Automatic annotation (TrEMBL):
This is Desulfoferrodoxin. Belongs to the desulfoferrodoxin family. PANTHER family: SUPEROXIDE REDUCTASE-RELATED (PTHR36541:SF1). The keyword Signal does not apply.
Amino acid sequence: MKRFGELIYTPEQASGEAISKVETHTPKIEAPEVVKANEPFEIKVQVGPHPNQVAHSIRFIKIYFEEEGRAFNPVHIATINLEPEYAEPKLTVTVRLKKSGVLYAIEYCNLHGLWEAKKSIKVE
Ligand SMILES: [Fe+2]
């Protein structure tokens, strides 16, 4: 029996048929490399180009943050649930961080599962 985390695809771990899905399913994270402590900034996550139909679409995007020095990680930053055909797979959120860490974006495609991307952010 696998740990749940082993069910999440990443570009590094994708194998077999999943390799052909890396480009269209791995979330793209746009965020600064360096931010100032407690100063608001934007994180954008998008997926695709990907079909957006009832039979096949991105159903949610989540952002988590692994904060350096925190006893328990991650922190849930945001989730967007998406209605097929109506909502595009994009999420923008304004965030303030106190400490450096790693952002994780997770998306779920109803046919191709969970996909992860990550990005380090340094807080000065
Ligand atoms: Fe898909």
